[in-house]
Records
---
Amino acid sequence: MHTKRLLKIAAVGSAAAMMLAACGGGSEEAGSSAAAEGSAAASAAPAESPQIEEPPAPGGDAYAGPVGEGEGQVNILAWPGYVEDGSTDPAVDWTTPFEEATGCQVNLKTFGTSDEAVKLVQGGGWDVVSASGDATLRLIYGDSAQPVNTDLVPSYADIFDDLKLQKFNSVNGVPYGIPHGRGANLVMWNTDKVKEPIDSWAYTFEADSPYAGAVTAYDSPIFIADAAVYLMATQPELGITDPYALDQAQFDAAMALLEQQKALIGEYWSDYTKAIQAFNSGTTAIGTSWQVIANLAQAEGGKVEATKAKEGATGWSDTWMVTKDTPNINCAYKWLDWIVSPEVNAQVAEWFGEAPANAKSCELTADKDHCATYHAGEADYWTDVYYWNTPTAQCLDGRTDTQCVPYSEWATAWAALRS
């Protein structure tokens, strides 16, 4: 594991998160006037989740191609660590070679949350975005993203099949993006505080947990789905089959579990450098985490272990999407194929700390154990990992005899829980 790289990217992510918190989500200047104007507009635009009665059929056609000469620039929104140009570490640069090969100048803005990403896309001026599953359907149903012609992305052929045409990156069998990478949300514990290995979320949710006051949980409305995953295993009578498709009774049960958990919480986390510090100091004994957090904590000498819980887990798979009205369509497609190509996807996955989406990337990582650590090609590992998705009023599990609670109401309920 390249711990120096991971520590640097953790610092970058922390700085971005703190900047967003301090500035209320304001944006730094982008490299083009269009991107800068889009950022300014996004600052005033609400990041609302459309409450959909019946999701519309995909609007518009995918770009027919062929991919031609680039327009000279591509305006990119991305998670910190996904688009590196050597400024963080001179040895880490897959942006400059892209610019040299294509003539497409990269204008980058990073964001700290999915809500921020949605706001920025809604503001306009962007060509592509790396969107997590709790943003993708908001962009699709909000008419902010266009279908993707995978025939124009040769590297798509090498993407793991179980990441293609998922409920969070496609509609009615139409792809709206190219998978980038993935990770599972794990239960992690400090081995000085928790003496026996853990394989369950029970110690983070149940009222009789011996770790009351030292439990942590991810601070986001999407964490409601983590409670739903636990209920799927422990209260099957609720009938939950998809943690992002909760009718009112199921949603109320998840919120009741989270209210119960709140008494156990020492602190919620969103900045994962602070989560690492809390685990390593013992302030946090147990809670939800990511594999990259476990690796970073151990690299700093922390006594922590992490595993996927027996009840299953939520997780994330990010998708490169093309915005609906991009004027730089050729550069956008060139970027999509570049960023998920075997060599570049290997670099990104290793730098950021995730499983690559491109199956051929596993042979190209500098750390030959990287894909094993992140379970990249283990299809069975991912069968009970429920990737973040955007809840909609039309139930994502296929039910038509009831309505489900949409994301906007998840956000309202989470805010009330945290108040």
---
Amino acid sequence: MKPTGLLFFPAFDWAISPTHPEREERLLYTRDQIFEEGIMDLPQIREYQPRLASASDIARIHFCVPSIERLATEAHLVSAGGALVIGDAFMKGEIKNGFAIIRPPGHHAMTVAHGNRGFCNINNEAIMIEYLRRKYGLHRIAIVDTDVHHGDGTQEIFYHDPDVLFISFHQDGRTLYPGSGFVEELGWPPAWGTTINIPLAPYTTDEGILYAVDSLILPLLEEFQPELVINSAGQDNHYSDPLANMNFSAGGYAELNRRIAPHIAVLEGGYSVETALPYINLALIMAMAGIDSSNLREPDYERRAFRESPDNMERLKRIATLQLENFRRREEMQADLKKKHGDFFSTYRRIYYDTDNISENQEIRLRLCDRCCSYRVIDSAAAHAMGESYRVLCFSISLYSCPDCQQEAREAYRHSLERFLGHYDFIYLQDRAADEYLCFDCSGFEERGIGGRMPGEGED
């Protein structure tokens, strides 16, 4: 039997502030408990050490404005690199599954990243997924986001991609940051029905969440047949978490993990530092390693105090029925929407960076193609609290886009350098198909490669 891979990175040198909920103690109490329990000495566990993610790894997912160096500290690169290490270990067959217990977190970071929002600068899961797709040729990936906050960044990154099934259960966005994740959010035309949100009423218990797993999440995974299942493992649904209002327990998390059986789990949120996180992380590790966790429970947990209301169970049943129907008619709806919108789908959005106080406006154009999920063009303008502002134009070519769409996008990028230099600070090309990432600095009239490769250079 292969072991479960574990990787710790507490990021001693990174915190938003010394007293902020997102700080190193989130992982230190967990590490102490795991070592005290002797978990790391068991043959079912293999420990791994992180490495730095490269600039190309980041540029494969993000347009970092004004640069990767400005946005991603060394701690962010090590956190993302830790996810890559666990991903490699699984794909090489060294482990049966793996858990990257890392910080800073990432699931609120979107394609265009101007700063920190929701404690996130870069998106660890998305960086890992695109790295694994590039390196190992994977196509169909499923992400199950179990953080109490809607994983809006991960959703946005894959919102156009029918080969990525994104499932998120979270406290209802009408009651909690970031105010999104409703059942109507199903994906853009090429990928309609491959985003499935499960907004939960405050104080939902183990019973309600595990019902959603059995009646909706597991059937979705069974029908989608992904090559890889990723758990975006937020732990702030716990009843003691100070930033939310849910009633999930450590035992519930263990059972959730056992049922979903992710290949890779990557830590996200969870801010009950002393009273919950050590128990939840231990529960997840035991579930992934196949160790009996039935006796693991928090000292103050009293099961009889956490009973699901009949009204909420009826609500969950309605959501499960609706979302299964949406998923099962996705191909029909994708075809209808492509026909309706023609060659391009356009939309507009406003994004607020709560941590860094940045206001961003985006206009998005998505090329619609019958053969692939093609490319996106994002026009982004962001104003910072201290007066700094940027406007950027971003071209993103999907990894598995067809040759015609690749060529069209590259020509559009080159054409933009001739037409729009006075309108933008930077113009970017994210060419996943060629694994080439370019940034044109409009003030200095200079094009540079991102990740160590200059324009025109081939791969080693």
---
Amino acid sequence: MSTSPSRNKSPTKKTAQPTSTGPQRVVLAYSGGLDTSIILKWLQDEYHCEVVTFTADIGQGEEIEPARAKAIKMGIKPQNIFIEDLREEFVRDFVFPMFRANALYEGEYLLGTSIARPLIAKRLIEIARKTNADAISHGATGKGNDQVRFELGAYALMPNVHVIAPWREWDLLSREKLLAYADKHGIPVDFKKRKGGAPYSMDANLLHISYEGGILEDPNFAPEESMWRLTRSPEKAPSKAQIIELTYKKGDIVAVDGVAMSPATVLTKLNELGGLHGIGRLDKVENRYVGMKSRGCYETPGGTILLAGHRAIESITLDREVLALKDDLMPRYARMIYNGYWFSPERELLQGLIDASQETVNGIVRLKLYKGTIMCVGRESKHNSLFDTRISTFDDDGGAYNQADAGGFIKLNALRLRIAANLKMANTKKGATAKKSASSKKSSSKSASKKTQSPKKK
């Protein structure tokens, strides 16, 4: 998840001192907002280096071109400004592969922020190579997961890259110091930021919006309805259900309601549909990789539909044990993504297994969306369905399945249970016999003792 600079404070650390051996050119993940604008100026002041800015459109829903004008105003050369639309790559190469695994972190979180970080790290390194930069920089704080995700990704792709994480170095550890620095260097501060900003921090992309920090740091505080941006409340969602049709090819959606779409267009459409029907809200306390618990609220309307539809098409196209194996591996796969190991050999190996399982995941799923809920109302696969009506029917199957075979099957599977039960009963019987024998001996001993006692004198 993203973290808010105003609330995630790291221990005071000495400001980095420029040296002749320090980085000469740094690629900065730059949004154009207040925090990264401050970082841009700070890099120039503290490292006396040339800064290259990289701004990515991954569907956050905000204009990114203004970042160009802001970067130029900060003295960045036009050839050192990179602004890219990565929405298709994001969904095609990161979101879709993740959903082939049905990944959920701690059983609930659809990893919306986590899966965006490796793409940003990848482009930071690619731009660093292109511009001959010897360092990269990001605005993640020292308390969050994002610093881990960015840097693990970067080191996996460029092992000796120099990473500059200002929040672990500078002394601008309060809102007052940040605003004072911005004022000193002529960095524009909008009214909301100066007055304290939103009561929480947000991170958005095409897969989700996350909300955390501020008033949400009390896990017993119910977020206000006005916080949610992508979804209607279920109470205000349409009173009439909507049925949508999803077409799958090798585990990915290629069409919605019969209309062929690109990956990013698919997710955009599903966000629209899910948001309309109040689908995809989550309020969760999770365990960060750095060790602390964190409360976050999420909106993932399209992703929630993706998961429901994918599980539905897999239910008829995957073998029972293949499906069970995927479900066994899924929590570990989800932790790899959450913790920042997208480019690790174990994730890539596991991805190969997952992708191989999707060769037969082809067909159509129909889902009913209604007031925050999703129900599968139909699934079919003309060439890959393992659902055999002749065998599954409760009516006369014409001999396709011999019910008498079930008796032997059950007895064989019960063999170990019967052996254990027989042993338990035998041991219980032995114990009861031994207890009875001991009790009998004790009774006989008491009787003998009474007989040998002398009669009392009157």
---
Amino acid sequence: MRHHFWIAALAVALGSSAIAEDAPATETVIELAGAPANERLSSREIRNWLRQIDVKPPKPGSGTTPASTRYTGNDTCQWANDGECDDPGIGTGACQVGTDYSDCWRLVEGVEDNTCRWANDGECDEPGFGTGACTQATDLADCGDIIHLRFRNDSCETAFDGVCNEPGIGDGACAERTDRADCFGRERPLTINDHYFGRDDRVFHDTTTFPWSVVGQVDFDSGGACTATLIGPDILITASHCIDDDGRPDSRGTFTTAYGRPGGTLSARVIDHMIDPEWDSRRFSSGDDLDGTDWALLRIDQPLGDTLGHVGVRALVETEGRRGAMQAELYQGGYSWDTGMHLSGNIGCHMVDIENDNTMAHDCDTTRGDSGSPFMVREGEEYFVVATDSNFRSNPNGPMIYIAARADRWIPYLDDFASGRNGTIAASRPTTGVKPPK
């Protein structure tokens, strides 16, 4: 079983498959309302990644609610029976009160059980913090250690600062359920399907400063968004699955970066793209053999890099060898699903395995929304993209295995694409970045 860093949506397509191996490979684009970085989602993954909205969860009950006070309602909401409670005040708030009965009644009545067919398989399958294969409150055995995290995130401006700012349990500077790591701790069970390896070590990056000012988002015209990075005056690098539209590449969209910059953010339209000649979205979604082709070069219609600067690129394994590459400290940043409009990421994580298919496994804490985000190395004041975030694979005996596509494969195409040429592949050589003008 394998998963991609797609965020689920307010416009979820009903009747989609769970994550079973025999799920159909047809695709539907869905979008998460209010999320910082939505991404394209195939129908076989729709139940994997359901919405995360900041609403107050119900208090656990005894499971023996008197009949006179039991929750009543119907399933007339458009999003009923999608596995996630959408009633306001209980769940996401996407439905009217009492119109998502089947998904919500357990939460209201305090009934946590193991009625899901995937319960007791060692993997949390509830929506939001699990695979999404089960309805909420039906996988207690696997999700019991983290049910207190339902509907919670780290979207507060002061999240990750070590001080609890939620009302009631902290100083009240943040809204309820928006300062998760500071108020409830950073420890995470290995069964959680966010990439925390037992602990969430992410930080917020300052998007007014280089290099984080050149890490932005592409909002695609056909729906969804991904993280992308300026690697030239008008060239971006992201993940190929981000621009895949039902088996066809569609990169039309708007790139926005430098959030918080004095004078405002900068934006440009995506006007061209290049993907790996061997890329095949359906093979990528159903197996692991094409993970190394999950990259896409994008061209924008404004040279934002002339104003902001851009980072360089490097084929780290080729230039440093396997040992040198695995010893290098990595800098990663992306627009994660659970950190609001903030760029979150890692400083000092590492490659933990290097495969011959142009992929690498890493121990950086990444999650849904980070697709296409850069893994960089630093030399002095220069930064070089060495890989981009792609997907993760199940690991029954430990934490998920998190996969990135190494830059070694796409660097040979960069010169010709940047010059608007098609032709012989150039040598795999690093390019330097350009600091922003003083």
